[in-house]
Amino acid sequence: MRTCPNCKSENQDGTRFCTKCGAPLEGAAEANDQRPVKKSFPAGKILLAVALILAVVFIINTIIVAANPAMRLLNGLERLGKKNAFTVTSTVSAKYKGDDDDLKAINNASIKTSLAVNLDKMFMEVSGSILYDNKSIADIAAGVGEKELYIDLKNLYDKKFIYKLDRDVRDVISEMQVLLKYIRQANIKYDKKKYAKAIADVLDDEIRGSVGKVTVTLDGESLMEIFAEVFDVMADDEVLMKSFRENARDLINRILKDKHEFEILFSEDDLEELLDYIEDEDDFETAWMYVIEEASYGIEYALDDLDYYLSLDDMPEFDITFSFGMFSNNIKGIQVSMKVEDGYDESITVNIDSRISNKASFTKINSKNAIDIEELEEDPYEFLDIAEEIIENLVGNIEKNKKLTNAIEDLTGLDADELADLIMDELFW
Q: Are strands 135-144 and 331-341 parallel, antiparallel or unpaired?
């Protein structure tokens, strides 16, 4: 029972107001205000939960990569091949260890290169910089644009050079651009597990997976063996053959349906004849095996030639490390390292560090202010004047770099001006 604080009347339990005078009963206000308390989840617990989830993903990712690095490498290379625009920026450097003072000069030298490609526009540009003591000596860029080939000597000459593409060449590029768009719609399937196994069997312990990386150790023999094994798998890969046939048939049908006229690369009759050939399974399988065998023989002969001139059996081991996104199969970078040693405690280590981005930018060309290479060829005196100015600018860049000038004098006994005269004599006289 509840007693009213106002009139002292008795009320049943659970009554909020006095039945006689209407006054609120004791504890009623408190009971009315007792709302469910919202439970808080401390920020620390949230962070801990996220950390635990990331740790689990991290561990699973590490186990998968360590268990089958060849599969991750194939996935990465497959994604890399599907990029329509990308830039590969590389730094090449060498480190000498030993007592030869002349060879020590290479420790300060490096080369930076960049390859930018846009497959949709059929643009490509290659650029490079020669550096000494991290200072640029010569920069150059060359590429193909929509209507011309171009060369930009940057810090060596203040004007750009162009070679205008004739109409026929531009038409070929235009048709290739259209054809490439059709090809990029293809979805070629293959028995990836067989290729991964073939690579893993050849390399064994020489392919290793770690967090965000796959490292491969190669030499001339293993390189040749990988090519041979891959082509053997291709010859037996029915999934690849079937997928290639289906995609080729669909591609030709789309071109014919769109009625896009290819006048240079092939004709409509060529496409229809090829389509008839592809639709016959026996003919296609015969042609497929022939192409695979010819490609295999071609690679084998090329490697034999390379072995003849470079002695692949004597090639030192080199490591290639593919860097991935932490939880993805996208290749972000490729590092190559090779160490050459001799018996006198000397060694040279060559490093190539490449980074890959999904964007591509190109040099802007103003044709009106550029020098036409065809016209320049008709005026040898102007060509010689330009060459002399380029050499002078190169010498000026060298002279600004004290470490380089000292290294040149130590190696050749020539100062920068004498070196310039020697270069001009060798090139033009």
A: unpaired
pLDDT at 220 over 70: yes
Q: Where are the alpha helices (DSSP H) in 216-280?
A: 220-236, 238-258, 268-279
Angle, CA 211 vertex, CA 209 and CA 217 arms, to 5°: 30
DSSP 259: T
Say which residues have a Cβ less than 8 Å from residue 329's Cβ, sequence separation at least 6: 72, 75, 76, 79
Distance, CA of 324 to CA of 37 (rounded, Å): 47
Q: Minimal CA–CA distance to 224: which of 351, 139, 313?
A: 313
As a whole number of Å, the end-to-end CA separation of the chain is 122
Number of H helices, E strands in the chain: 13, 14
Residues 6+ apart with CB under 8 A from 241: 284, 285, 288
User: Half-sphere exposure (CA, 13 Å, Cβ side) for 236?
Assistant: 8
Q: At what angle do helices 167-183 and 238-258 cross, to 10 degrees?
A: 120
pLDDT at 33 over 80: no
What are the angstrom distances between the C-alpha of 346 and each of 99, 101, 319, 357?
8, 12, 20, 37
What does the pLDDT look like over 185-201, one tens digit per residue?
A: 889 999 999 999 999 99
Contact assessment for residue 370 and residue 159, using Cβ atoms and an 8 Å cutoff: yes
Domain boundaries, the chain: 1-33, 83-357, 379-428
Amino acid at 221: E
Residues in the chain, how many? Answer: 429
Q: How far is CA 169 from CA 29, 214, 240, 365, in A?
A: 91, 41, 34, 19
CB atoms within 10 A of CB 40: 7
Largest CA distance in the chain: 127
**79-100 tens-digit pLDDT:** 888 888 999 999 999 999 988 8
